[in-house]
Amino acid sequence: MSAPRNDGPIGVFDSGVGGLSVLRHIRALLPHEDLLYIADSGNAPYGDKPPDWIRERSIALAGWLAGRGAKAIVIACNTATAAAAGALRERLALPVIGMEPAVKPAAAATRTGVVGVLATVGTLKSAQFAALLDRFAGGIEVVTQPCPGLVECVERGELDDPATQALVSRYVAPLLARGADTIVLGCTHYPFLRPLIAAAAGPQVALIETGGAVARQLERRLHETVVARHHEMRGRDAFYASGDADLAARVMRRLWADDTPVEPLPASLAQPA
Ligand code: DGL
């Protein structure tokens, strides 16, 4: 017997606009699904916040998405996945798809045997990241680089400003100095800085991100649990933001589409408890 059809949206959240780098893969792979996205921009960055805070906030955001009928939750944030994926899976009777830096494909791709990982402080300090290295980084050298300030550049829409470029160069240089030929973009905000990172790294260095793999995992989980939508209509996108929703809207229109409507998150969720 096939699983029941479910027309609920796919709920996606991130500390801000970075998760749109995942959402674009989801939209490309699943054109008929409705997508409901929260940018928690009023609280970005998550990267230097305590894991307990991120967990509670993620429970609140995912709970709201579930309350709006979401049939699956995507944590479009490496930092929130490390802090909260387990708690969300315990609490929600829905598929919860998280993400982690792409160490496994990077380890398979490197020829120099040195992989660089750009990520937030929170991701790099997490037990999940240590476990990821234990599992997949045997026999290669992994050079990690926390990147304070980069998420804020993306949140402000400063994708190619000289100050952003200088910060990117500062974070990429130590990876190159150690001989990395493969760099993992371990935070969903960083794909929006890809041109700057590629310019700093040079053409011989491969950049790896995780959005495509997350979208494929979501598709698999939808087919295992609730049937994905099959009809001719294009799915709708709905966007919510905390903090300065006008600023978030300006940036999201640049990163997503010119006419992206962005609503403020409801007051009960606008600020964390
Ligand atoms: N975009 C998020 C990630 O993938 C979090 C960035 C942040 O808010 O520090 O890690």
Low-confidence stretches are none
Shape assignment: globular
H and E string: EHEHEHEHEHHEHHEHEHEHEH
| Small-molecule binders | D-glutamic acid
Number of discrete domains? 2
Which structural class is indicated by helix and strand composition?
A: alpha/beta
| CATH overall fold name of the largest domain | Rossmann fold
Major sheet details:
6 strands, parallel
Beta-strand content estimate: 15-25%
DSSP, total strands? 10
What is the CATH-assigned architecture of the largest domain? 3-Layer(aba) Sandwich
Radius of gyration: 18 Å
Q: What is the CATH domain class of the largest domain?
A: Alpha Beta
Average per-residue pLDDT, rounded, comes to 94
> How are the strands of the largest sheet arranged?
4-3-1-2-9-10
Helix content: 40-55%
How many helices? 12
Task: Tell me the distance between the termini.
Answer: 43 Å
What do you see in this structure?
It comes from Candidatus Methylophosphatis roskildensis. Its EC number is 5.1.1.3. Pfam families: Asp_Glu_race. Belongs to the aspartate/glutamate racemases family. InterPro entries: Asp/Glu/hydantoin_racemase, Asp/Glu_race, Asp/Glu_racemase_AS_1, Asp/Glu_racemase_AS_2, Glu_race. By secondary structure, this protein is α/β, with parallel strands linked by helices. The chain folds into two domains: 10-99 and 212-270, Rossmann fold, CATH 3.40.50; 103-209, Rossmann fold. Helices cover 45% and strands 16% of the residues. It has helices at residues 20-29, 51-67, 78-91, 103-109, 121-125, 127-136, 150-155, 162-177, 194-201, 211-224, 245-255, 267-270, and strands at residues 10-14, 35-39, 72-75, 96-97, 114-119, 141-146, 182-185, 206-208, 237-241, 262-264. Strand 1, helix 1 and strand 2 (35-39) form a beta-alpha-beta unit. Helix 1 packs across helix 10. The longest helix is centred in the first third of the chain and has 17 residues, at 51-67. It is globular and about 50 Å long. The chain starts with 9 loop residues before the first strand and ends with a helix. The model has no long low-confidence stretch (mean pLDDT 94). It binds D-glutamic acid (DGL). D-glutamic acid (DGL) is lined by residues 14-15, 18, 44-47, 77-79, 120, 123, 151, 187-189.
